[in-house]
Amino acid sequence: MPPGRPKIYLTSEEKTLANRAKCKRSYHKLKEIGCTDRPRPAGTGRPRIYKTPEEKVLANRAKSKRNYHKQKAAIGSRRAVRYRAENTTNRRLRNAVQDRVTPSNNPVDIPGWMALVRQTSDKFNTMVHGNIKKYMEELHRRFLVAHKHNTYTDVIIKIETMESTIKRCQDALLQLSGIDNNFREAEVEGKKIKEALSCLEDVLCALMEGETEFFQMYKSKEFMYQSL
C-alpha cells in the first residue's frame, strides 16, 4: 500500500497555530478590500468593552445595583424580622446626647421639629463618629473578622430610620415655614444621612455579588466612600 499523504503538522499545537495564522491572513486580506463587517476571525482577540477604568467601575456598580434591587424585597423582610427581634429583647433607646430632653416624634410646631432634626443628627454623628469614610473602614474591619452581611445590613436599618425621620421633619417644616433657614438645616442633615446610606448600599451590592467581587472592588478603591 502507498504510504499515504505525509503529515504537514506533527502536533496539534502546530496545526492550531497554522490555522490561526491562516485566519489572520484572510482577515487582513478582507480588510484591505473593505469587507470589515464580517465576523471577527478566531485568534484576533476579544474586543474591549470598557475603554477606561472609570467605565469599568460604573459598569460593575450598575451590575451590583441590579442584583441588589432584585433581592431587595427578601433583604427587607429579613431586616424587619431581625429588627423586631432586637427591639423585643432590648426596649431601651440610646440617645445621642444625654443632657438633651428627648423631643416628641410628632411635634406640632417649628421648635419641636427642629429639636427632632437635631436629635436625629446627633444620633447619626455619634454612630459614624463624625466621619463617614472612617466609619465605613471600621465596618470593613468588622466584616473581615465576622464575614457576615449583617455587619452592613444592621447599620442600614438604623440609618434608614434616621432618613425617614429627617424626611418627615423636612415635609413638616416646609408646610409650617416654607424654605427658610430651618428647612435648609434639615436638608443639610438629610443629605449627610443619604450619602452614608448610599455608601452602605453600594458596599452591600458588591457583597451580594460575592466576596471575591467585594474584595476586588475594595482593593481597586471602587467603592463610593473610598472617593469621599
Shape: elongated
Mean pLDDT: 79
Distance between the termini: 80 Å
So how many helices? 8
Poorly predicted ranges: 90-101
Spatial extent as radius of gyration: 29 Å
Structural class comes to: mainly alpha
- Strand share of the residues? under 5%
Helix content: 55-70%
The largest sheet is: none
Q: What is the count of distinct domains?
A: 2
Order of helices and strands: HHHHHHHH
**What's the total number of strands?**
0
Which labels suit this protein?
elongated; 8 helices; mainly alpha
Commentary on this structure:
The chain folds into 2 domains: 1-43; 54-227, no CATH class. The N and C termini lie far apart (80 Å). Helix content is 69%, strand content 0%. The protein has 228 residues and is an all-alpha fold. The chain has helices at residues 12-32, 53-70, 72-89, 110-128, 132-146, 150-177, 181-209, 211-219. The model is unreliable at 90-101 (pLDDT under 50).
